[in-house]
Specification:
alpha/beta; Collagenase (Catalytic Domain); 5-stranded mixed beta sheet; 3-stranded mixed beta sheet
Length: 202
């Protein structure tokens, strides 16, 4: 089984930042959490099959424009997941995790940090609201807090793809994050109960 990390909404000139600040620490942590039961791969910005040219010199990976809600100025997460599934066609041994550098919402929720098909093959996390700058706060100079948030949301959404539902244990990564404070409070790993369920699936 494998997890494929895919950049969405990134420009080619951001590829070094994406790799060093997002993908490398994420792969390292996912490897520790899931152990040797999963292979973790990453699509670079240059090699992604979902690219569309924005200019002759700059390439970006963006979803189709009809998935963008112009009135809300947010992307529609549910529809984006459907597009990811259709575009990637992952087999039963593959989970696609999209790292999206734009804001999104889902159904009755004003925004989502991430979303996944429960027991499915695709998941996405949305970065803007994980950054302190979004809330006009001082930026995290070392990026440590932002890195932790990305990892927690990625693990959370991947947990959903393996069939895990929201957990009531406050420190479990599967706790539903209604705010950034919830994300900061919980751990980046599964509780004993969720781990037991996951072990029976992997």
């Amino acid at each position: 089984m494998q997890i494929v990390i895919r950049p969405i909404g990134w420009h080619s000139y951001e590829s070094e930042y994406f790799t060093t600040s997002i993908v490398s620490p994420l792969i390292q942590r996912l490897s520790k959490i899931f152990g040797d039961k999963l292979r973790i791969n990453s699509d670079s910005l240059q090699s992604s099959s979902l690219q569309s040219s924005s200019s002759s010199s700059t390439t970006t990976t963006m979803p189709p424009t009809h998935l963008f809600d112009k009135a809300r100025k947010q992307w529609i997460s549910d529809s984006l997941l459907d597009w990811l599934l259709k575009s990637n066609e992952p087999d039963i041994t593959t989970k696609v995790l999209a790292i999206c550098d734009f804001d999104a919402y889902s159904d009755e929720l004003n925004f989502v940090f991430g979303e996944a098909h429960l027991g499915g093959r695709v998941a996405a996390i949305y970065l803007p609201r994980l950054r302190d700058e979004f809330y006009v706060r001082k930026s995290d100079k070392n990026n440590n807090l932002f890195e932790q948030r990305v990892i927690k949301e990625a693990v959370h959404e991947l947990g959903h793809t393996f069939g895990l539902r929201h957990c009531q244990i406050s420190k479990c990564v599967m706790l539903f994050s209604n705010s950034l404070q919830d994300t900061d409070f919980k751990d980046d790993k599964f509780c004993k109960r969720c781990n037991k369920i996951l072990a029976g699936i992997l």
